[in-house]
Amino acid sequence: MQSRYFTINDVPQGTPGRELFELHETALPDLAEGEVRIRNSWLSVDPYMRGRMSGVKTYIAPFTLGEPLEGAAVGDVIESRHPRLAVGDKVRHMAGWRDIAQLPGDQVEPLPGIEVPEQAYLGVLGMPGMTAWTGLYQIAGMQQGDNVLVSAASGAVGSLAVQLAKARGGTVVGIAGAPEKLEWLASHGIEAVSYRDRNAQQLTEALQAACPEGFDVYYENVGGVCLEAALNTLRTGGRIAVCGMIARYNAEGPAPGPSNLAMVLIKRLRMQGFIIFDHWNDYPRFLEEVGPQVANGEIDYAETIEEGLERTPDAFLALFEGANTGKMLVRL
Amino acid sequence: MQSRYFTINDVPQGTPGRELFELHETALPDLAEGEVRIRNSWLSVDPYMRGRMSGVKTYIAPFTLGEPLEGAAVGDVIESRHPRLAVGDKVRHMAGWRDIAQLPGDQVEPLPGIEVPEQAYLGVLGMPGMTAWTGLYQIAGMQQGDNVLVSAASGAVGSLAVQLAKARGGTVVGIAGAPEKLEWLASHGIEAVSYRDRNAQQLTEALQAACPEGFDVYYENVGGVCLEAALNTLRTGGRIAVCGMIARYNAEGPAPGPSNLAMVLIKRLRMQGFIIFDHWNDYPRFLEEVGPQVANGEIDYAETIEEGLERTPDAFLALFEGANTGKMLVRL
């Protein structure tokens, strides 16, 4: 059986171009004992993957040039030599960026039994959703009634963070760019603020207008002016969960940090970075809490879908242009 | 009775000049019920006072132009209309920057009974010492064996932080400037690293040489290149206690923050600012733990002393030139 997969052919500097990605085809070997073969139906593309293209080990090994890229995917088992997995099982695994995956069954997990579309396990009930929940509650220690600010608020992570925060009272403000994203936020009861054409001072003023009492929690996905404005508008004792800094992922060189970092001292802020893989033991608890809310429609989620394996690099690159509302997915 | 005291006559921009400070003399009124009169013997000058000169309320009210400046002081009660305080009592209070203080006895505390020179209650057993202890243990959560980095390591706060850290094993590195400060650190078993003539990259390399395994805790007193180099050399899961950012206190405008703040995410760092006044309930516990160590000489402390009330502004201004090893004091 043939498998088509993407590689990168170089370590990109700055914003990667489409030509970085190469589509290959290979004949898969027979299944070894314990392996399964999966026909992927949905692929996930996520901002963190940019870090894996840097050639440098950070919290996760870099992609190997010429080897298939990796990422979350869901699909159907089409052949199995693993005792726990049978043909027809719906599964999630990390052998994405390809159509047919073949890997040890121990690296594959059956989809949980909650009644949601399968691709939800790549988004609102997958890594991005788990990231929103962990950052808000475990890292930022959000309490009932806290005022919460979220950047990239209509993205895969942010769009759940704002809804979880909203359900616990308090004012929730989401920063986004495109008009349709601001509308999506507003339609979910979130105060939507645009970062477009605003410097840090102007964004600060817009946030102050949206939430004059200031924020108890800032959920950080972006960096840059968003962080600077957040530091200005947090209250004393505020907490920042640093989930991402997408503004910097394609930077070609160091750029200055916020000029108001002394706010950390003046306001006794706590700022904490986290990586969701460190917290994966809590996934069943997350699923138990958030899964039913997604299934019964209390929590909404948006998706931006590209069609076909060939579009996977385009879907990935579009993340950095802010082209997605909600989870960016590729449907095969 | 006459009291001589300092005021400021303007809100300084940038580094204050000596002419900002004016010495006045006034006749004190008779003691009101509940008041005491104190002959100050030692005055404290501290970097945080610069913030009170800004005319802006931060975590503490600004100094009022034309009114006596305030700050920690110790002295002897020379007259009392307070039931708890008698003539001859040694006390600590916040009516510094003057020779004779008159204030409600409820704002005055008798010195604890540990056998140390009285001015130690302005330094190693006072606010700076309490700040070192709180930042290291309560804020940064230092554990036995942690490698610890301290900036302004020979200052009033840093010089206790390095000794407390050293007593719990691990490698302790202190950043300082002047040769005599580096010597003081080395003589206490601390790896001393100079920030002088080093940019962030060069300081990073010097810190890596001093502690190749990296740091678990960074005790932040300075900001600027020290923070940038610390972010580069902290280990995954490292904690930063932000006690001060003296490099910025006299800045006339915003300056960029560290260009590598994304390390907070990559290394899952926790960075937390704190103000010691929020933690003052723990002072008895601090005194119980650290007091005996100071009294029996296990913990050393340095002092830099200016003589005479007239020199108080000079002592204060010298803080920003790094002129002090250990606590900067004025002896009256």
What report would you give on this structure?
2 copies of one chain form a homodimer. With 332 residues, the first copy, chain A, is α/β, with parallel strands linked by helices. The first copy, chain A, has 2 domains: 2-123 and 303-331, Medium-chain alcohol dehydrogenases, catalytic domain (Quinone Oxidoreductase, Chain A, domain 1); 127-277, Rossmann fold, CATH 3.40.50. Helix content of chain A is 24%, strand content 25%. Chain A contains 9 helices and 15 strands. In chain A, strands 3, 4, 5, 6, 7, 14 and 15 form a 7-stranded mixed β-sheet that branches. In chain A, strands 10-9-8-11-12-13 form a 6-stranded parallel β-sheet, with helices on both faces. In chain A, strands 1-2 form a two-stranded antiparallel sheet. The longest helix of chain A has 13 residues, at 127-139. The mean pLDDT of chain A is 95. At the A-B interface, helix 7 and strand 13 of A face helix 7 and strand 13 of B.
